[in-house]
Amino acid sequence: MSPEIRGISILGATGSIGSTTLEVVDRFPERLRVAGLAAGRSTERLASLCERYRPDLVALSGEEEAEKFEGAYRCRLPGLEIEGGPSALERVATLPDAGFVMSAIVGAAGLRPTLAALRSGKVVGLANKESLVAAGAVMTRAAATSGARLIPVDSEHAAIHQCLADRYDPVRRIWLTASGGPFRTASSLEIAEATPETALRHPTWRMGPKITIDSATMMNKGLEMIEARWLFNQPPESIRVVVHPQSVVHSMVEFEDGSILAQLGVTHMRTPVQYALTWPERLPTGLAPLPLDQPLDLRFEPPDPDRFPCLRLAAEALAAGGDAPAVLNAANEAAVEAFLDRRLSFPGIPAVVAETLAARSPTEPNDLEGVARADAWARAFARELIADRALAATG
Ligand SMILES: NC(=O)C1=CN([C@@H]2O[C@H](COP(=O)(O)OP(=O)(O)OC[C@H]3O[C@@H](n4cnc5c(N)ncnc54)[C@H](OP(=O)(O)O)[C@@H]3O)[C@@H](O)[C@H]2O)C=CC1
Ligand SMILES: CC(=O)[C@@H](O)[C@H](O)COP(=O)(O)O
Ligand SMILES: [Mn+2]
């Protein structure tokens, strides 16, 4: 019997995860059909994707972007519905013909459409970790109410999902592996001199710019600790980080008897992306296998929160709960953007996040509006700090 064709929507179709998702669609055209696509500003790429995959609906981040897209590409895309703005992203996330939604917009812009997909009971492949970092309680509650399923795409969480399978054995610890980023062996002085060029040189993964900077500060691992807390419902103190420079062991679960299960694989996002799209089935990825018939050194070392303070800040936000993770996330987004624009130094990133967290008046957001308020406050506060620092540096 041939498998049923599954309609999918891709939020963040023009990005790194979006492209990998489409590679998987190319591998299994008899199983996967693109129903909806959404993206931000890469209009030429989006138009080519629409020509190639013929979705029913395409959404752009804003109405103005959608009007420009319509004007420039309508003649190439007859019959395609084109919309823009937050409600359009939500429409793509809830299309009746899409049983699966790949949530791969970068940053807090991914929250609303991800929540819409969860509310409408979709299977959601979650790459947008910021959804769980900023609004973990809101997202997981929505999934529990609607019966939606969250399948992790983040490589570490996909690994843990596989190690846990349907086991109900008590978990002692979750070990998230971290590559350590481009500055793993650098001194604090060297790290202070980091530029966008050096920080974007990730040693093992090719990813979009925001997550690549997060890997360099190790905020990525901090965000992943918070993501793991919500995905696997584990107490914060049981979620640990171990540096593993080869990025071959994608993460591990330690059970009460001390046994540790790990998931290993090649360093390529096609594996977790395809895992989410075809779960619970496993299909060939077409990637060369991990060469275990060759010598392979695997190293594990403790992380250094003195050189990488973002790790400590994220652990503190996780322990504090309430709006702290949303504030951490928004301040980090503002700081990373400024670093990439050369308006903030690399050590300025944890400094801005720390000052923003310290200045917050704690709240307990219980819906997305509350999270959005915490996010807006933190973003504005962080941007002011960044502007003041730039002024102090030039003045
Ligand atoms: N890349 C990876 O290997 C991994 C990524 N992730 C997570 O997946 C997410 C995506 O990362 P990645 O693919 O690397 O990022 P990219 O920067 O490569 O892509 C981001 C995507 O988001 C879209 N986008 C940005 N802002 C908006 C907006 N306001 N409205 C609609 N679309 C928007 C971009 O559109 P456009 O380009 O058209 O502006 C693009 O399609 C992140 O949350 C990241 O942490 C997790 C694990 C691994
Ligand atoms: C591929 C993936 O899941 C990334 O989140 C990756 O883990 C980033 O590398 P770091 O381990 O350096 O943060
Ligand atoms: Mn990851």
Automatic annotation (TrEMBL):
Name of the top EC class for this enzyme: oxidoreductase
Domain DXP reductoisomerase C-terminal: residue ranges: 264-380
Pathway the protein takes part in: Isoprenoid biosynthesis; isopentenyl diphosphate biosynthesis via DXP pathway; isopentenyl diphosphate from 1-deoxy-D-xylulose 5-phosphate: step 1/6
A GO term for molecular function: 1-deoxy-D-xylulose-5-phosphate reductoisomerase activity
GO biological process: isoprenoid biosynthetic process
Domain 1-deoxy-D-xylulose 5-phosphate reductoisomerase N-terminal: 8-136
Keyword Nucleotide-binding included in the entry's annotation: no
Keywords: Isoprene biosynthesis, Manganese, Metal-binding, NADP, Oxidoreductase
Catalytic activity reported: 2-C-methyl-D-erythritol 4-phosphate + NADP(+) = 1-deoxy-D-xylulose 5-phosphate + NADPH + H(+)
Matches recorded under Gene3D superfamilies: 1.10.1740.10, NAD(P)-binding Rossmann-like Domain (3.40.50.720)
Cofactors: Mg(2+); Mn(2+)
UniProt EC number: 1.1.1.267
Statement: the UniProt record of this protein carries the keyword Zinc-finger: no
Residues covered by the 1-deoxy-D-xylulose 5-phosphate reductoisomerase C-terminal domain: 150-232
Similarity-based family: Belongs to the DXR family.
Protein name: 1-deoxy-D-xylulose 5-phosphate reductoisomerase, apicoplastic
Organism: Geodia barretti
Lineage: Eukaryota, Metazoa, Porifera, Demospongiae, Heteroscleromorpha
